[in-house]
């Protein structure tokens, strides 16, 4: 299981930045409880050379990253057939969404400008929705549509893109035919299908991530709150105040030691 993060200096004197690839070491793929598919994949995959080891992760690879990209979000495609890493960048009139191939040393496959240009791009996340459509034979079928959602910093505007890849061509055609929007033109791999407005505690958008188990987005705005949005309606379902208690971990009335951090929530 690999993950990636970007190292980027905020200093104007900085001339370079990098992608760092690492793998968490808490996952034991050699366990006897692993599935046969997992065991097969671990025996046929050539292990990556380890650059650095720590208690929590192994650093596998460092590849160049554009020093002009003001990275605000990273997300891996939810498609099972197309593992693309999407990068969202910020700054007014410079915000983009870039597609990188993790299997080709983060080769940039495509980039898309955020429009209108004055918007300052922030967090992004890939997600999916299951839609009920009618196929050519008149039967109702459930199809999975892969999407990407993007926040902006201070404008309270968000964008939703449909991810069009080889695995989703038939699905996308079926959806567009049902919507009466089918045409023979080549589709963009990221197709803007909706914009929305949002409000947070600070009025800003920072980070966003998709929780598939509950079909929810977790959103941050630079305050102590984490906001939980419904994937379908984007309505706020609840918010959680996350704070750090400064202290020595005194015992409570039941004699239990209190934690140094706490989380409270309000609906």
Describe the structure.
- This protein is mainly β.
- 7% of the residues lie in helices and 45% in strands.
- The chain is built from two helices and 17 strands.
- It has helices at 36-44, 169-178; strands at residues 2-7, 17-24, 52-53, 57-65, 71-76, 85-89, 96-101, 107-113, 121-134, 140-152, 157-163, 190-197, 208-211, 216-220, 225-230, 236-244, 261-266.
- The strands form four sheets. The protein has a five-stranded antiparallel sheet with strand order 13-14-15-16-17, with no helix packed on it.
- The longest helix is centred in the middle third of the chain and has 10 residues, at 169-178.
- The model is unreliable at 8-15, 25-43, 168-172 and 251-267 (pLDDT under 50).
Query: Order of SSEs, N→C?
Result: EEHEEEEEEEEEHEEEEEE
What's the total helix number?
Answer: 2
Helix content: under 10%
Which spans have pLDDT < 50 for at least 5 consecutive residues? 8-15, 25-43, 168-172, 251-267
Mean pLDDT: 76
The side-by-side strand order for the widest beta sheet comes to: 13-14-15-16-17
The main β sheet shows up as: 5 strands, antiparallel
Strand content: over 45%
| Outline type | globular
Rounded radius of gyration (Å): 21 Å
Class derived from helix and strand content: mainly beta
Strand tally, please?
A: 17
The N- and C-terminal alpha carbons lie at a distance of 35 Å
